Amino acid sequence: xxxxxxxxxxxxxxxxxxxxxxxxxxxxxxxxxxxxxxxxxxxxxxxxxxxxxxxxxxxxxxxxxxxxxxxxxxxxxxxxxxxxxxxxxxxxxxxxxxxxxxxxxxxxxxxxxxxxxxxxxxxxxxxxxxxxxxxxxxxxxxxxxxxxxxxxxxxxxxxxxxxxxxxxxxxxxxxxxxxxxxxxxxxxxxxxxxxxxxxxxxxxxxxxxxxxxxxxxxxxxxxxxxxxxxxxxxxxxxxxxxxxxxxxxxxxx
Length: 253
Description:
The protein is of the alpha/beta class. The chain has helices at 17-28, 40-50, 65-79, 103-124, 150-170, 188-197, 202-211, 221-232, and strands at 8-12, 32-37, 55-59, 82-87, 128-137, 176-182, 243-246.
């Protein structure tokens, strides 16, 4: 039997690199998947690429309660239940010292990365089956500090607080709640951070990040997706309230 046979999963940030490859693994393991993201075109492209009768999508701004309620309701309407929630949507902002950091960018990051995650748990939990699993994307930046990324680091630390609280509140229903904490991942977000760190010198910035990772390279999106799949499956039945670090040894220093 497949690991997610007859399970229904929601994935926010579903058209991004980690969201999309996680959806692929979920589908291969027998799940029905609702992709959620801000751009309908990107969702359509992701759904076309995944090419499964068990994929649907909902356009939503995760920072708006009405949009979150909508994607939850659509999932119930189309699939009848929710077993797994990959609360993954997030944005990176810019790289600037805290004294120069734009307040409007800070507000946007907190709105998406903190409020969006909180709203997701708030509206998914009442509809989730007992024994389900919530996986929330934090970051190695939710464990460590990084110069120039004050808003992002703040938001990813906050995700840990939401996770721990939700894990305690959901435990009586045997719902597991955990965070995943990737190192830099080889994807669009890191290209943005590299370029924002030093315009025109992104490759040099990448080498500096890689040098800080004992295993000497960025994570690949599929490596993060495999950890999420494990946490979504019943193989992780006794794991809740944890920070699952997947960083090539970066936080061990």
